[in-house]
Structure formats: C-alpha cells, structure tokens
Amino acid sequence: MATEDNMRELTLEELRQPANLFGQRFLTALVTIALVGLLVSPAAAQPLNVGIVRSPGGAFDPCLSTPKVNFSASSQSIPLGTSTNLNWSVQAPTGCGYSLSMTVLSRPQIDLSPGAPQDWDLWTVTDVGTLPLGSLQVQPAFNTIYVLVVALGANSSIASAPIQVGVNLPLANRLCGLAVSTSTPLIATQGVVQATGFTPANTPTCRNQVTINANNLAPLLVQALRTPNTTVIVNDGIELDLTPHLGGQITIANGVQLIGGRIALPGKRFQRGPRLFVKPNPNASDSSHWPYPLFLIDGDNVRISGVRIEGPGSPPDAWRSIPQGYAKGIQFEDKINIEIDHNEFSGWNAAAVEAAGIENTAGPSDRVWQMWTSKVTADPAGLHYPAGSEPVYIHDNYFHNNYYPDSPAPWSSCSLVNRAACTPYYGYGIVASGTHLLIERNVFNDYFHAIAADGCQGSGYRAYRNLVFNNGGVEGGNSVQAFDAHHRRPGDCGGSDSAAGHDFDVWYNSFLYRDWAALYINGTPDVVAVIGSNAFANDRVIDSAVVLGNHGDWGKVWTDGNNLEGVRSWDDSSHHSDSCDFDGDGINDRFLTTGETWWFRSGNRSDASWVYLNTNTLLVKDVKLGYFSADSVRNHVCDVAVLNGSGYKGGTGQYGPLN
What is the model's pTM? Predict the structure, then answer.
C-alpha cells in the first residue's frame, strides 16, 4: 500500500531526467513530472521522485504539506487473464481550496525483486476522474507497476509510491500438477509451426504456455522467456518492438520453447512469421547501448523456431547516418540441447547467432566438449561423430544483411555495391566460439562470414546442405571467405598458434560465392577437415575454393572427388524452372537445382526465403516437373519425376513410384 509516508516534496527540475537509453519521451507536462524515475519496490523508504511537485515560482499552499493518499491493489499476484482492483483514497485538510484530478500510470516491470531497476520504458496513462475515493479494475498481461498521480490545482501534484502486480503464467495442461487451479485460463495454441527435426531432450511434462497475439505484448514475451519450461507461441504477423526494454539482454530460461508462425516448408504456404525487432539507438555509439546480445540463452533444452529476429541494422541502410555499436542476435555459453530453426535473421553487425564453450589455456572444459567434441575421431573413411543428436543444432534458417561497414558516417563511397571501399564489422551469420555445431540447410546472403569458428580446441562444425549466395564480405578492400576457421590464439585457449580448431565436416553445400575462398582454414585442424560433394563457383577446389593458411598441413584437409567446380550461375535453364508449385498456394515457384541439392522459393513473395527440398545431383534438365501422384493433384504440390513414372513426391523424401 502507498501512503503519505512514501512521499516528499520535489522540484520540477529534479524530475526532468532521461528515462531510458533510447531517448524517447512518453509523457509531457504534469504527467511527465509524476512518472519519471519511479522505483520498483513499494517498501523503499523515501523513494525518489515520489511526492508533492510544484512549478518553480508557484506559491506553496501549506494545506498540502500533509496530504493523505492511500493506494493499494486488491491482489498483487493474479493468474494471466484475470483482474484485480486498484483502490485509492485521497484526503486533504478541510478548508483548503483545490480541485482533484487523478491519473493512474502503469508500466511493465518484469523483474519484481526488491530494488530491481526499471526494465521497460512503456507508460500507459488512465484518467480516473476527480472523486477522492474510488477504484479501477485492471487486467495486466504481464508484471506491472502502478502509480496514482493526484493533481491538486494548477501547480501541485502528488505521486504515490508504486505498487506492483505480478502475473502468473498458465500451465499448458490442467491435469499437469496437483496445484493447478481449474479456474486458470488456458491460452490458445494457434500459430504453432510443426517443423521437423531435433526435439530437446528431458522436456518436462508440466509446462507453462502463452500465446502472443497482439503487438503490445512484448513485455509478456520477455516475462515468458524468463520463465523456465514455458512454451511461447507468437502468431504470424505479430510485430514486437523490443527497443523499450531497458533490462539489458533478454534471458531465455531452461526448457523454454519460442515457437513462431513462420512457415517455410515444402508443401506449405509460405508465412514470413512474427517480427521481433529493435530499432537503432542514435544517441550511443558504444556497444553497451546496443543489444549485445538481444537474447541470451541461459539454460538447456531451448528451442527458437519460426520467428524473424531483426537487429538495429535493418534495413541495410539503417546505420548510415548515425554512430553504431556492436549488435548480436542470440548468444549462449556451455548449453546443450539447443535448437535454432526455421527463423529469419537480419541486421546483426556482430553475429546473428554465437555459440560459445568454456575454454582457457588449460583446454576446454564445457559439456559439449565432454559429451561430443572430445569423442570425434577420424580414419581414412572420414570423420566419425558420437551417436545421438549433436548438442547444438542450427538448421533451416535464413541469414541475410548481417554485414555492415565500420566506416564513420558519412560513408563516402562505402556500399554493398562498392564493397572495396568498406571496412566491415564482423557481420557473421553463425559463430562457434570454443564449441561444436551442426549447421544444416541454412541460406546465407549478405554476410562478412556466413559461418565462422575460432581456433580453440573445442571449436568445430558440421556444415551440411547450406545455400551460400555471392554477397560476401570485404576487409581492407579484399574479399574474405564465406566459411571460416580462425587460427588458435594461445593466450586465449592454449596450444599452437598454427592450429585451427578441432574438426570441420563440410558436405553438400552450394556456394555461388566466388570472390575468394568458399572455405578458409587458417592453420591445421586438431583432427581433420573433410570437404566433400560441394558445388563451388571457384574454378578449382584446392587453393581456390578451399584455402589453407598459416602454414597449415594439407595432410589434415581431405577432399573427395565429387566436389563440383566452376558452377558460376544458377540462373540458366539447366539449373532452375518456374513451371510448378511446390508450396500449394496455386502459384508457380522457382525450383532450383545446384548440382548437389534442390530448393524452391515461393513464386508470389518477394520476401520469401529459399526452402530445402532434397539432396540430389540431378539438374532441372534431367527431371520432369508436374502433378503426377494422387497427393500432388489433391494438394497442388509439384512432384519431380525422374524415370518411368518414379521420382520424388513434392520434390522431397525418398525415390519411389509417383502413380
């Protein structure tokens, strides 16, 4: 409860201070006076910026020296979807002439622990009239702070101490636990993307479940992501602005699944999915004021699927006229059972996704090393990996425009067209820092490095069936590699500086990039690097598509005889066709064959990404497209026929009869 004991007299100048890192003012005049800088904890003595406020030079009314204001909530902990009442009473000394005008201010406050700093700059103002005794029914969708502001005439106002209302997230299954209330409302599950692939292990039976179905529910997203074992469903078309979040990186707790409405699958109509974004901060140029990262995965068994995660560098020209800091989309360290799939990443000038291990000069000590990387072996047949799912799996994502120059504004001639004039930031799609990743069926466009790994003993990746376009990075006027493996820095992780990571397995990728190496290994892998059955735009594999630096040992870099060389375009009729529909929307799509893999892109969407269909060396000129099977006719999804009525239903799956 807030009372007169929680108030003191303040001047206007004391209250007019910046409220947030993004420099946006929400309220003006008297309302601004009341809300700026309020503390979270109602128990704090003499909270700053709470109490009587009067205009400079205004006559002070002694009748207002001891006002009595009581402000409370009927319940300060409620289930999501239910209500509570805010109650107030205001009493001033009799005989003092004044006119009451009362306002309730509210803002999200996800962290309700005592003394927690303000973590959102989103204020809502509700005029509640002039009666000194009253109540207001509220239904917060997330943890919320409320303040009562009482205007006493033209020159003075009273702001109560804040009160907090915590919102409890619902369980997905009413029968999940004995403590589940039958009155707890369940949230609908529309918009779930049923993407195939890895499923996190040890998923608990009892889970919270929340659906984000409105653009003003960004605080609910953050609260749900912080809550362990929660499924967060974000419907297609929702746009959540995370710029007003002041709490630093957004934590994703153990067992959380963030599932968006993005659909980029064979046989399904394309949906671009919900947009989770931050805007550029024109008032800061150092990295502390940019999201670094925006999302921090702080637990195991986490999945992020079907969303667009857009950094402050989107669209590509967003930073040209303002200073810039480093920005990173997702980061985590020593986490297992992590799946990141079917998302779109753009606008991250440091990295879209960075996975890290724990390593120092004594060597790696994290769980990925212990359960996976240290068990990788090689023999003349190739690399051999442990049985089961790799601890970190990144697949079927679209990475683009994660390349951004470091030149000071104005840029002069630096642009994506004139790359030689640019000195870029990192601009990585995926980074493995002292850990091992499975990276599969992703699409990369506009990047500095599409994939990178540091040279530490725990670093490595399996890169399979990725599609890499010809928009890579430039450093000092020179083109740089698409896939990268740094050399080891002994001061960071021990060993020889001529080493370059643990192992690299690179198969069935298609590189249209030819400005320099498709894969550059700056040293010698501890185990081996194997490069097989890729399609390269470079004229030769050794010392062109694959380059070894830092006096590396070619005896530990193996290539097979099935890599394609000199595939410089996919725009000719032997590589693509626009004559058939692969997503069932009734409009013909672009079907692409690279010589190693098949892909399609929705024909009626300029913002659609490429979708993986199959691993196959046949080109368009070698197959026939049409609606041959009963399923194909019923769903209007194209089949790919090869010989004598056999082929691939929908262009996917196993070879077999079509009729």
Answer: 0.86
